[in-house]
Design goal:
Helix content: 25-40%
Largest sheet: 5 strands, antiparallel
Strand order of the largest sheet: 3-2-1-4-5
Order of helices and strands: HEEEHEEH
Number of domains: 1
Number of strands: 5
Distance between the termini: 49 Å
Length: 117
């Protein structure tokens, strides 16, 4: 428990420690006994200089229309898409996507839009 709290608090101060990574897996999952809830699971990896690769995962569970929104998001995000990762400098295995999955989806949509024109 104290280690989890330390990990979460240290991520608040990790703004300076950013690394460029890439998405390695995108999976949509149905949740609950009625399977009417859904979430998007994103796996990613990054390296810091010659160290790595380090890996991480992040989840997105929309509150409204989860099946439709997760399905739409799943189609927008591809493997090997760039991802910015925040990490703890003394232990890079403690990491998170910068801005979470929501920001990653937004940036990816903007890149796709620019590529079309």
């Amino acid at each position: 428990m104290p280690e989890d709290l330390y990990d979460r608090i240290s991520m608040l101060w990790s703004r300076r420690w950013l690394a460029e990574g890439k998405v390695t897996e995108v999976i949509s999952e149905r949740l609950g006994t009625d399977r009417k809830r859904a979430r998007l699971a994103i796996a990613y990896e990054f390296s810091i200089g010659r160290n790595g690769p380090y890996t991480g995962e992040s989840f997105w569970t929309p509150a409204f229309f989860p099946l439709r929104r997760v399905s739409s998001a799943r189609r927008k995000l591809r493997k090997r898409a760039p991802a910015r990762v925040r990490y703890r400098p003394d232990d890079p295995s403690v990491n998170t996507l910068e801005g979470g999955v929501t920001k990653l989806l937004k940036e990816n949509s903007e890149r796709d839009r620019e590529a079309r024109f």
